[in-house]
Amino acid sequence: MSNAELAVSYAALILADDAVDITADKLQTLIKAAGIEDVEPIWTSLFAKALEGKDVKDLLLNVGSGGGAAAAPAAGGAAAAGAAAEEKEEEKEEAKEESDEDMGFGLFD
């Protein structure tokens, strides 16, 4: 991670710990107050948009948890949708393989 990413991450954690909404302006204010000058505004905007409407404390508590509804918000919408699609594909493949076995013949018969 670069210093800019770390600075924005820590600023987001500070705001979350104080139960303050995470916005790009608030992140930038904290970073400037800390005396860190090399952070481009794009980083604060990206972090603010990524964490918008999310409970950062909940994200930290659910890191590495198994599948299920509790992990979906932590993984993000696209990642969760991709994982669900992969599971469905695997189930379809397994069902297809089972149905081939039920026919009484195989590839080398």
TrEMBL record:
The record ties this protein, via InterPro entries, to:
P1/P2_N_sf, Ribosomal_P1/P2
What keywords appear on the UniProt entry?
Ribonucleoprotein, Ribosomal protein
Any one GO CC term of this protein is: cytosolic large ribosomal subunit
**Stored Pfam families:** Ribosomal_60s
Output the superkingdom of the source species. Answer: Eukaryota
Keyword Cell membrane listed? The answer is: no
Q: GO terms for molecular function, please?
A: protein kinase activator activity; ribonucleoprotein complex binding; structural constituent of ribosome
Amino acid composition bias (Acidic residues), ranges on this chain: 87-103
Q: Name one GO biological process term.
A: cytoplasmic translation
Annotated region Disordered: the residues are: 78-109
Q: Which PANTHER family match?
A: 60S ACIDIC RIBOSOMAL PROTEIN P1, LARGE RIBOSOMAL SUBUNIT PROTEIN P1
Subunit structure and binding partners: P1 and P2 exist as dimers at the large ribosomal subunit.
Instruction: Read off the HAMAP family from this record.
Output: Ribosomal_L12_arch
Q: What does this protein do?
A: Plays an important role in the elongation step of protein synthesis.
Say which family it is in.
Belongs to the eukaryotic ribosomal protein P1/P2 family.
Q: What is this protein called?
A: Large ribosomal subunit protein P1
